[in-house]
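Before surveying the methods themselves, we first show a specimen of the format, giving the amino acid sequence and backbone structure tokens:

:::
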Amino acid sequence: MTEAAADRQRRWKDRMPPGGAWKPKAGMSREARAAEQDRAAGGRLTRAVDLGEGRYARASIALRLYRSTRRIRAYLRWSQEGETQERYVGEVDAATRAANLAQAWEMAHAAGYVTTETVPPDSWASSPASRAVMSANKGRDTKPERLLRSALHRHGLRYRVGVRPLPDLRRTADVVFTRARVAVFVDGCYWHGCPEHHRPAKKGAAFWHDKIAGNQARDAETNEALRDAGWLVIRVWEHEDPEQAAQAVLEAVKSRQDTSA
């Protein structure tokens, strides 16, 4: 034990460790908690529990204060087959939560409880980092979608989320106004080839060029199919101001409602 750690334990002999040494900040979002774990572990890919056969689970560290001993213990937690698993890592003794999380991740790696995720041989990703980006890409409920929906709701609009405008067409719109027959898609700048912000990948350039081009062709096909069926299609880039986008959607919905009245 280091001299500094011994000093801390002597200070904690007569009083509890400070809450800042183990408690998470109040009101932290799920994304903020994940970012906190990433920083402490040295990256998202270093939080991997090897499940075998090329499968990994993303782990996190939980810190708990045991009042009877005035000690902070660290536990590794992950999900496997729908059930939460937990493993004791050891005691930590730093004065801040960030330092204790980092200390616990070092202990977990040293004990072999976690590893650094590697790219499977059949993965399309050119590196573990790019695979992490692909895995993190959400199909729905992205931040731009939530911001747009909130703005629409403030304007008094009611809508359906993540449904097919045409049941027989396998295309899901992010926001759908059934009566007005307006379908809104919130497109990511990278995945849909935004002319302002898309930057072609340097690694695997040919593959990613074809991938983005395929997405754009699918978007055009979707637009045409919905328009032929009498729908108005509105596409919003993720970088657009949600309030301005909501205003455009509001005007379109009202216009079509007035026309059909």
